[in-house]
Structure formats: structure tokens, C-alpha cells
Amino acid sequence: MRPFGAELVDRREIGPGQWLLAWHAPAIASSARAGQALHVRTVEAGGMPLRRPYAIATADASSGTLTIQAAGRSGPSGSSPPPWASSLRPGDRLDLAGPVGRPLEVDPRARHLLLIAEGPAIANLRLLIDEAVREGRSVVLLYGAATAASVYPSSLLPDEVEYVVATADGSLGHAGTVADLVFEYEGWADQSFAAGPTPLLGGLTQLAAGRKQRLGVATLGRKRGGGRPIQPGSPEARRKSFLQVVLAQTVACAAGTCLGCVAPGASGSVRVCREGPSFAADELDWGPV
Amino acid sequence: MKAKRKGVAANSKRTPTVRRIRPAIAPVSRPRGPAPFPPPGGRAGPSSASIAGSSAVSSASASAPRQSSASSSSASSPGSPSAQAGAPALDALGGRPVDLGVDLGRGLALANPVIVASGPFGYGAEVTDLVDLPRLGGLVTRSTSLKPKAGQPAPRMAEVPAGLLLGMGPQNPGLELVLERYASVWARWQAPVILSLCADSAGELGEAVRRIEGEAGIAGLEINLSCGGGGRGGAIPGLDADAAASYVAAARRGTDLPIIAKLTAQAADVRAIARSVEGAGADAISAINTLPGFALAADRRGPALGSGYGGLCGPAIRPIALRVVWEVAQAVDVPVIGVGGVASVDDVLDFLAAGASAVGVGVAALADPMLPVRLADELADVCRSLGVAAVGDLVGTALPARTGPASTRGAEWAR
Questions:
Q1: Residue B393 carries which DSSP code?
Q2: Among A14, A230, B31, B208, whose CB has the most other CB atoms within 10 angstroms?
Q3: Count of Cβ atoms closer than 10 Å to residue A287 Cβ
């Protein structure tokens, strides 16, 4: 995970204030998996002294490029790229490190994946869509946004994905929150993955727990009889959990030393950069939801 | 008015106010040529230390006066006389290595003056694949308490202009577990490991220190005077000279290891605290810790941090750290370790010139783990280009000469 320079290939706006930045970083692109992050050394005068974490939205090993989605700065005359990227032109190099953290774990037997995202957090699940489609799994993406204008463009998604949208103002798709859509699809899904604001994730965690009780042993991957106990937080345990989430947090060292990026876990705090950013939902303590 | 000013100028010939480097440089016969001393107050930008250092060129490289009088830049420029003479590697030091070593007292010797401050590298063992640990001047661990501490609730970091607000709470697994897990690892390392200790009372600190005594692998102790009580009204000990002294004295009674007292710039007069911890037996002083700050959450409904207040660190506090180092270096005789927003070799040179014998890198090492090692290399290059044989010669070059009590300066100025 040593840092190295990567070249900016492309940068464009994909929605109001949302920018897609493509980098040529073959070493990271070939090893990145869904749910992992990129640690970007953003350079601003008098700015952030740390690297900023961004979800790896897409990674193409053959061309060595990967993309991240970053929030720009919106002003009276439209929006501009994020301050640290505004002076970068294609061809410029920036110091990237990654991939940071642990990936989302898909059970090899899972056929139906339900992805739930709200707002820019879609970037955390974007790579999972590519991986799942490549492996021949069916993917339903439930997406929530404030208005039709800020909905993630369907042109950026593979055709194989069933894309269901909810907007808060009802300007596109279901009028309401993305959580309203979950009930229709959770019975279909073998596994689900979510990213978004903490209240959404906490609510989904509750739903997932209810589903577990309802379906009992019929969930995927439950072995009959003995076998060694599975360590909570291990890839095996995550593969067998119905809901996995990706947390967004400021990550300082990405080495697990600074203890700055902790999140409340079910048994003590967990580090987003080492144990996360992908978690099985029941590993975390969501507090009173 | 004009006549008076002339009078001052005449006086200054007898008692020069120019800044002289400390006599660590042997005053060899000065070469002829333009005086390399900068005009007082003429520090310009990041090259400040190179101005201060250029005075060293004149004395240290008496063997090559022509080159030295042309200042440092000529040593590396291709058209310089030395390059023409066909000796590309030869510089003002004649190819000798720069002595980067620092002695912090009581046997705590650092291979170079750039150490990692408490925090960014945890206990060091976690970053062995990211950092060339043997090349670090030293490593100060995360602050450790006698009993395990869970730390503050998340979120623990907030972005602020030119800095970072941290609300970690000294989360640590407790002294017992740290020693068990890491002491044997540290003992195999080349770089000295300085264990940072925090305690709620002087008694607890003494107990922790007695527990450490005799453990291999610990080169020194840093007493974090910014956590725990002990001061007046339960305030942190670093605010109160008596409380700070009681902490250091408690540690001193329990160990023969070098003790570094880490001061906070929150104190009304850090010089008083510095003198009092020096008197209580501190072998070195490090300054400064983070400063309390506050940031609001994005929705402005409460604090951004789970802990409420946070400790401000990063380049934002560098001027404060420099001020404290400057003051403390004049108040005490023990070495000072400057910590606060160091991110480049210019910052290192600033701290050295302000009186720090060593410099701790904090937040900047998070973004760039190899930075401390690189800073030491760059420092050696700077020394080489300045013709300074030992990095100690750069320490305190900006300090006023200690000829008398500092308070009389104001009176002189008025006269």
C-alpha cells in the first residue's frame, strides 16, 4: 500500500456538484476490490494535512485506470471540481495510495444481489456492480436522491442492472426514501449491500435482523451441524451475513495506528481503515435507531 | 532623533547585536570578504535558516575561503571553482558525512534530529512495512496509561484550516499489554523508542514508571502533561508549574531512564513550567502538544467531534510551537524537542534555529509515512550545502545572545 504518483486521465461532472476523476494507476486498479478506498494526497494551500479517502468507483485492470467520485464546490456560476482537483489537468500526477481497507464479500452462491445507496455514496457500491455483472449475478440497485437532477445517471451503469430510483420530492420514480423500496426486493435477494447516511444504514440493519429471524436457517450459506465457529468480522462471517455496509469516514493514516477513524462496533470500537470500510451490518453498533 | 540613532550605531560596534551562532562551531579565523551575517530582522521566507547557516559557512570552511564567501549556492552550481577543479563530490565539508547525531541527555542519543511525535505511528510495529524504521531519529509512541482506555466516541477527527482537530482520548490497551506486546520488538530496533505516558495523577504516573523500570526496548519516557488532573481544580498538569513538577518528580523517583516533559502552549507562561520541570529532573522538554479547539458538525446541531473539544494540530499551530520553543530554549538548559506542524525541511530548520535540538513530526507523517526519514536526509543535504559539519551547529542560531537578563532589552531599546 505504498503511495505512488498516478496520472489524471479524465475529469468530468456527472451530476450537480459530483465529479468523476479517472486515474491511471495500474497497480491499484489491478488489485482493487469493491468496497475498498483510495487514499488521495490532495494538495491545497493551507488545506487538509491528511490524505482524503475516496471509494474506488470503478477499476479497470486491463487499462490500469480507476475512477473516484468527488464532491465539487458549487457556487453561483455552476459547480466547479473539488478545490484540490480544480487546478489538475489530464496528464497531471497526484500521490495516491491504496487500496485501503477490506472489500465487500460476496458469497459465491449468491445469485441475487440487492444494492441500496443514497446520494454520492453510490460510489462505494459502484465497483460491486461491475464485479457482480461480470460474474453473472443479477443486480438490483435501489437509489435514493433528493431530486431527479441529482440522480446517478443510468448511462454510467451496465445494462444488466435493474435500476430503481426514489426521489424525496417525487420528481423521478418513487416519491419517498430509498428505504421504502427495500420491502419489495428483500425477499428476492440473497445478499444485500448498502451505502449512505448512517440513519439509512441503521434502519436497514434493523430490517436485516428482522429478516434473519423470519427466514430462520433458510439464509444463504448456513451450514447444518457443527463446523468451526466463525470469527465475527472475518471474511467468512461477512460472506454469510445478509447485509453489508460501507462506511464513509475521514481516514488519517490508513495503517491502523492513529485510531482516528473509529466507528462504534458491537464489541468496542472498530477502525474504518483496517476492519472496514466494508462491514457486516451486525458488526457495528448503530445506537438507538 | 537622528543624532540619537547614530549614537546607537556607534555603540553597536562595541556590543554587536548581530546574531551569532553558539560556540559549538570552533571560531576559526574568519575569511576575508563580505560579512555573511544577515541584517537583524532580515529573515526572508523559507530560506531563513540558510541565512542563519551561511554564517557557519564562513567559519567552518576556512580551508576554502573563496568558495564560502560566495555563499552556499556556489557549492552546488556547476560553474563553481570546485566543479572546474574536477572534484564534483567535494563540497565545503570535503566529502565528510554530516554529523546529524543529537544527544538528549542521560544516554538518549538520536541518530538524527527528526523523530516521530506521539500519535501518528502508534507503537511503531504497525507501520514496519510503510516506514524505514531503522532510519528514524526516534519514535515516540502513542500516549499510554496504566489502565486501558477506550478513548473518545467517534467521530474523532475534523478538518479545519491548515490543520486537524483530534478527539482521540488517549485510547490505548494499557501499559501492561503494551509492554508485553511491543517491548521485545522495540528492543530489536535500531531507532530509540520513547514511550509516551499519560496519567490521571502523579501517583499513577509513578506507578507506571516503576512498572516500566528494567524493561528492555524503552529508550526514554515522555510525560504527557496535557492529560489527567493534578493541576489546580483538576486542570491538566501542564497548566500549573507545581503540578507539572510533581508529575516529573514522580517519574524521576521511579526510573533512571531519560525523561522528556511534553509541555502545552495553553499555560500562561510556559517558561515557568519549563523551569519547574527542569528543576524536577526532566532531561529534555518537548513542546508543544495539541491546543484545544472546537468545530461544529455539518448540520450545526452540535460539535463535530464525539468528544466535543478537540486538540488542534498541524501547520495551524506551527507559529505557536515556534514561539514556545523559542521561549523555552532561552529559559532552560536542557534540550528542547520542537513539535507542531512540521511538514518540510524548512520547518525543521526553523525549529532548530529557534532553539530545538530535535524536531518531532506529527500530522504530516500520517499523510506521508516516509516524511521523517526524508526530512533527515534533506537536513543532511542542507547542512552539506551550508558547510555545517554537525547539525548541532544549527541549533539556536536565531536566539538572542544570552548576555544578560532578557528584560533589560526593552529599556535599552527605549534609551
A1: G
A2: B208
A3: 8
Measure CB to CB from residue A253 to each of B154, B163, B366 and give the nearest one.
B366
Q: In the β-sheet with B163-166, what is the strand arrangement from edge to edge?
A: B157-160, B163-166, B310-313, B291-293
Q: In terms of domains, do A27 and A142 share one?
A: no
Note whether A79 and A135 are same-domain residues: no
Chain B interface includes A47 (CB < 8 A): yes
What is the H or E stretch that residue B45 is in?
none
Domains of chain B: 46-96 (no CATH), 102-394 (3.20.20.70)
Residue A220 in this model has a pLDDT that exceeds 70: no
Task: Give CA–CA dist B184/A261, Å, rounded.
Answer: 28
At B25-43, the pLDDT tens digits run: 444 444 444 444 444 444 4
Count of the separate structural domains present in chain A: 2
Per the domain annotation, does A79 fall within a domain? Answer: yes
A263 vs B: CB within 8 A: yes
**SS3 label, residue B82:** helix
Q: Domain of A162? A: 112-219+235-243
Instruction: State how far the Cα of B219 lies from the Cα of B193, in Å rounded to an integer.
Output: 5
* Residue A204 belongs to domain with CATH number: 3.40.50.80
Query: Considering only CB atoms, which chain B residues are within 8 Å of A264?
Result: 153-154
Flag if B123 and A257 touch (Cβ within 8 Å): yes
Q: B164 and chain A: CB distance < 8 Å anywhere?
A: yes
In this structure, the answer to whether residues A178 and A129 fall within a common structural domain is yes
Residues 6 or more apart in contact with residue A260 via CB below 8 angstroms:
A250, A251, A252, A253, B156, B157, B166, B168
Residues A134 and A211 reside in one and the same domain: yes
ipTM: 0.82
Question: Which of A253, A261, A271, A286 to probe the B interface (max B CBs under 10 A)?
Answer: A253
What pLDDT was estimated at residue A222? Answer: 55
Residues A88 and A120 in one domain: no
Question: What would the pLDDT profile of A18-68 be if each residue is shown by its tens digit?
Answer: 889 999 999 999 999 999 999 998 877 667 788 889 999 999 999 999 999
Do residue B314 and residue A255 have CB atoms under 8 angstroms apart?
no
Residue B313: active-site member: no
Q: Are residues A51 and A123 in the same domain?
A: no
Q: Given B198, B227, B313, B383, which residue is catalytic?
A: B227
Q: Report yes or no on A200 lying in a domain.
A: yes
Q: Tens digit of pLDDT for each residue in A186-209?
A: 889 999 999 999 899 999 999 888
Least confident of A83-92, B134-143, B382-391: A83-92
Q: For residue A247, what is its C-alpha cell?
A: 462506511
Residue A239 and residue A132 share a domain: yes
A50 interface with B at CB cutoff 8 Å: yes
pLDDT of residue B342: 94
Q: Do B366 and A262 touch (CB under 8 A)?
A: no
